[in-house]
Design a protein that fits this description.
The complex is a heterodimer. By secondary structure, chain A is mainly α. Helices cover 76% and strands 0% of the residues of chain A. In chain A, helix 6 packs antiparallel against helix 7, helix 8 packs antiparallel against helix 9 (133-145) and helix 14 (222-235) runs antiparallel to helix 15 (241-274). Chain B is built from four helices and no strands. Chain B starts with a helix and ends with a helix. Chain B has a domain at 3-64. Classes of the chains: A mainly alpha, B mainly alpha. Chain B: Keywords: Endoplasmic reticulum, Endosome, Golgi apparatus, Magnesium, Membrane, Transmembrane, Transmembrane helix, Transport.
């Protein structure tokens, strides 16, 4: 492999910070790092070990997972965090009962261990995947204690969405927006839930939240831009005349922004290939995507809106 | 400026401040011994301590890493729900990974 160990370390750090679940590349980069360069990593080694371990479970590489776990448990023999990883190993091997037992023994020693409680919830999610009711109950009990856990609120929202309980899912997102009102993704998610719920009031609310998401992300959030376009087009004809013209205006603006973004990626990629550098294939679906934008605008007879 | 030079800036700056402090103490004792009226510190000590302060703060600013953007949502702008929606605490392992990557 051509990647130096420093590059691999930085890449892994980036993947760790940005929350990407890409087991394949993490194992590719991390296996060599843990095997050969463990002395150079210093204290970061343990973070890398944990990251590579979870990635190895994801891509079914038991040998790598064993190696990481061995390193971790020899260094931290009594750590509950390492015991949690052992439980995850059992989970990946399909031994749900043993994993549950292990998690419960950890919890008996340390009832405030949030990470292990979350593993129990994940375990129940896996076991009761057809019927998330039991998991939802566990998760709400967890959230009564750990109210500031953003991940748990998001998870609960997802479980409610899976049950098409949009009102409760929206409540979860409201909690998240309250805790972090500058995060455009929470606004976008909330708007999506309201849009899925349907109905005029919900869609008007969705439009507001999509617009807020677009604003907070400095017009970067493509999903929110599309959402804005969709809500405005679907609201047309269902509201009063003055509202209608506003919706058309917003839809045109969103379409313009989307078209601009697609055009920019097109041009940028073409420039790179002309320079004879790395030949980046321009996203081939740009014409298709433009057509879909045009189509939703043509519903409003506004084709000329797109530059 | 390279990294070691910045560290030198911190050390020199701190040394300047410490030295100015000792000089000031010495000046006070000198003034007391010669039974003069103490009015103010000599200009060179004042200048030295101010210079040391600036040098040390510059060095520390440069060594401690890049500045972060002051806007709250600056590092959120580029993110999408695809990564933020990943929750490792709740991940399960009964998925297509086993089928996709099994080496049989």
């Amino acid at each position: 492999m051509a990647v130096s160990w420093e590059e691999a370390r930085d890449k892994l750090r980036e993947l760790r910070d940005s929350n990407v679940r890409d087991g394949e590349s993490v194992v590719d980069l991390g296996e060599r790092l843990v095997r050969k360069y463990s002395s150079k990593l210093g204290d970061e080694l343990w973070l890398v070990c944990e990251q590579v371990f979870i990635a190895a479970l994801d891509v079914d590489r038991d040998d790598v997972a064993d190696m990481c776990l061995e390193k971790l448990s020899s260094n931290f023999p009594k750590s509950s965090r390492v015991m949690k990883l052992q439980g995850m190993m059992l989970e990946s091997q399909g031994c749900a009962d043993e994993a549950e037992e292990l998690y419960k023994t950890i919890l008996a020693q340390d009832p405030t261990n949030a990470a292990v409680r979350k593993r129990l919830i994940a375990l129940s999610k896996w076991r009761n995947w057809k019927n998330p009711g039991a998991t939802i109950k566990m998760l709400t009990e967890y959230l009564e204690v750990f109210m500031a856990d953003n991940d748990a609120w998001l998870e609960l929202a997802d479980l409610y969405i899976a049950q098409m309980d949009y009102d409760r899912a929206a409540y979860c997102m409201e909690e998240l927006i309250l805790s972090n009102s500058f995060n455009h993704l929470y606004h976008q998610r909330y708007a999506e839930i309201k849009y899925s719920k349907g109905g005029k009031e919900n869609k008007e609310l969705a439009r507001q939240y999509f617009a807020q998401a677009v604003k907070l992300s400095n017009n970067c959030n493509m999903r929110a831009l599309y959402g804005l376009l969709m809500t405005c087009t679907s609201l047309c004809g269902k509201v009063s005349q003055s509202e209608d013209s506003k919706n058309k205006q917003y839809a045109t603006w969103a379409a313009k922004m989307i078209a601009e973004k697609y055009n920019n990626t097109w041009v940028q990629d073409k420039d790179v290939s002309l320079d004879g550098k790395k030949n980046v294939t321009p996203s081939k679906d740009v014409p298709q995507l433009m057509a879909s934008v045009q189509q939703s605008l043509s519903l409003l007879n506004l084709q000329d809106g797109v530059a | 400026m390279s990294h070691p030079l910045k560290k030198v800036a911190i050390i020199v700056g701190l040394a300047c401040i410490v030295h100015a402090g000792f000089s000031a103490a010495q000046h006070r004792s000198f003034v007391r011994l010669t039974e003069q009226e103490f009015s103010s510190l000599p200009l060179d000590i004042v200048v030295q301590s101010i210079l040391g302060l600036f040098l040390a703060s510059y060095g520390i600013l440069m060594v401690s890493g890049d500045f972060k953007n002051i806007q709250v949502n600056a590092d959120m702008k580029e993110k999408s729900f695809e990564t933020v929606g990943n929750r490792f605490a709740f991940c399960t392992f009964e998925h297509r990974g086993k089928a996709l990557y099994s080496r049989q």
